[in-house]
Amino acid sequence: MGVVNNSSDGQAAPNENEPVEAVRMLELAIAQIALAMRDGKAAVDDLDRAFTSAANGIAAVADLATSAAHKRVEDDHRRALVDQCADAQAGMQQSIIALQFYDRLSQRLEHVQNTLSGLSSLLGNPSQANDGQAWRSLRDSIRERYTMREEQVLFDAISNGVGVEQALDVALEQEKQRDDDVELF
Questions:
Q1: Per residue in 128-159, pLDDT tens?
Q2: 178: in domain
Q3: Among 48, 100, 130, 157, which residue carries the largest CB count within 10 Å?
Q4: Which own/partner contact pairs does 152-159 have at CB distance under 8 Å and 24+ positions apart?
């Protein structure tokens, strides 16, 4: 942490802003990981269900096709084949959506990596570690990388001194308000 030599005994005293900034950056990283882990688990669970459903649907289609090959195909069989194909298609669409959420997870983890890397670089350079402008520049460059609204809300909350749990609540509320549209990145 940076120090300012302003004590009467010549000992360096810590600059009060730098530890606060470091803690906020670390809290931001922690909150980002928490959001990423939540999204990742949900996406993997959805993907698992979607692929299982698609596989079962395809097996059912194969069974129907096999039975249809041995006898004249009746309307019920044709309808069942069409329904099974539609179910398999829906399962595959759910898989694609889950993969898009995985893409969001990857993006968040990349942002965490960038945050920690920038923090590490700043703290590793004594001339920058004591420079308020360097801290502002780091914070601004981190904020500029965020494209997802939840990340921006989370960053702003943490930067304003809101605790991790409260910031997560704010970001999750923002996410609930968002349309179900998939973000493109």
A1: 888 999 999 999 999 999 988 889 999 999 99
A2: no
A3: 157
A4: 154/28, 154/31, 154/32, 154/35, 155/28, 158/24, 158/27, 158/28, 158/31, 159/24, 159/28
Q: pLDDT: is 38 or 148 the higher one?
A: 148
Nearest alpha-carbon partner for 2 in 112, 114, 135: 135
Q: Does any domain span residue 180?
A: no
97 lies in a domain?
yes
Torsional sign, CA 149, 150, 155, 156: positive
The confidence score (pLDDT) of residue 137 equals 95
pTM above 0.70, yes or no: no
3-state secondary structure of 41: helix
**Is 148 within a domain?**
yes
- Give me the number of domains the chain comprises: 1
